[in-house]
Amino acid sequence: MIVIGGSASRQLSESLARELSVPVAKTGIKRFPDDEVYVRVEDDLSGQDAVIVQTAFPDRNIVELFLLQDAARQAGAAKVTTVIPYYGYSRQDKLFNPGEALSAWNLASHFELFSDRVITVDLHAPKVLEAFKKQNIHISGMPAIARHLEQHNVDAVISPDKGAVARAGEVAKILGTSFDYLEKTRIDGQTVAMKPKSLDVSGKVVAIVDDIISTGGTIITAAGQLKAQGAEKIIAACTHGLFANNSLPRLKDSLDVVFATDTLEGEASEVSVAPEIAKALRE
Length: 283
Ligand code: R5P
What we know:
By secondary structure, the chain is of the alpha/beta class. The chain has eight helices and 14 strands.
């Protein structure tokens, strides 16, 4: 086995190769003056099982991923596994209006076109996995988040909404804490109150876990409400830290701790999903 690291997932590729005790292929990836990407796999991959790791976000990294899949074949790889740490467009998982593109499903068919199997992490809507015709493996980012939370003496794990409560439950099970979700109650046209369905957070260290933090609006609102309900310390953790609109500084101001996994590499990606991906590749 050999790992091929795309430019959006260099650190994760290195961590994964270390976990698997396999090499990282030598590649040449650069941008032409017009921003088109050039990729080359410099090692001879004849007969090898190549594992490409590349986050599919933003768009330019999706094209790079397609070219890496092709380059791996051109370099002789016998088998190509594509690891997509963050799956761009995963939130457009159904038609919200007639005539829209079914983006998440459409991309699945492209991701697997030049690949034998695809590995994804915490897809926003796991139903999208049904779009894959070839083998696919879906990995949870929650064990990695739980690993990092172990240092914070968390009392309760909360999900921002009912639909995602299983994620909070998964982290809570590993940490041996209670868990809950935030129930929304409309106060008036402008105000929505968010309160844990049954837990009392007063005096507690609370971790809010989510799949994605984008603008940070969900987490900042949830944290404000939990603070008003007496939470002593509030931590926000997500698998995919997009931090759109430069929201990380605002999040850091509103919370005691903010971190993400390395599916999107940046200053907040403090824990790696490499052990979980490696485990799936070994099985
Ligand atoms: C929503 O269903 C997702 O799980 C996240 O809660 C959402 O994408 C977060 O977005 P934002 O950070 O912009 O509030």
